[in-house]
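Each lists chain and fold; for instance:
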Amino acid sequence: MSSEADAPRLEGIAAYVGTLLGADRYAATEHGVAVPGHRPVRRLGLALDGDAGAAAWAHAAAVDALWLHRPWRLPAGALPDGVGVCFTHLPFDDRLTTGLNPRLATALGATELEPFGEKEGRTIGMLARTDARSADHLRGAAAAVFGGLDAWIDGADPDAPVRRLAVVGAMTDALVRQAAARGATLYVTGQLRAPALDAVRATGIAVAAVGHGRAERWGTRALAGLLRERWAALAVVLQPPALD
């Protein structure tokens, strides 16, 4: 059995996640402790949205603390006494979903990462190399990693092997053209955006839109693994996802 000394405190969990995701580069409103906790954390719940559903699940799961991606709609007093809440918003989006995400690159079989794309001074994506594989193979790989795709657009030459891909947390005309200009022939993102489709047609780049929810759930699973690696005595449980 784990002792109280083995169990982290909420502030330590928030600080560790912040360090992993480079949260010090973001405003304090994007990460930290939302509700102070007053107990050692032996059982940590992870949920994307702080709402009444997450609060009810936290009760049923008997967690000591809760990590949230979006904490702002959590009803006041909805959690048991002493159960605290920490959160990570934009750092999670940028580093554990379709952004500059080495763990995702490994899952997709990609290496030699380069930061790519900016939004309000934040890096929101990466370029990466992969052994020459067909676009169809990578389509299947992405679907396996994320549990499905929202949309797929074939490139101008569907039979040409993909050697360089872009993974980006946004899809704009400029970003698509920049990715293609830097040699990417596959653009992986969360949501397909209509204003960027002219650039897709003009460049001939293939597109995998994995779905915003799927990308976030992948990131939550990755975060759970990182926390379990850090604290052997910490039980990490994830709120079951709603169906897409």
Q: What stands out?
A: The longest strand covers residues 122-133. The chain is about 35% helix and 25% strand. The chain has a mean pLDDT of 95. The chain has two domains: 4-89+216-238, 99-209.
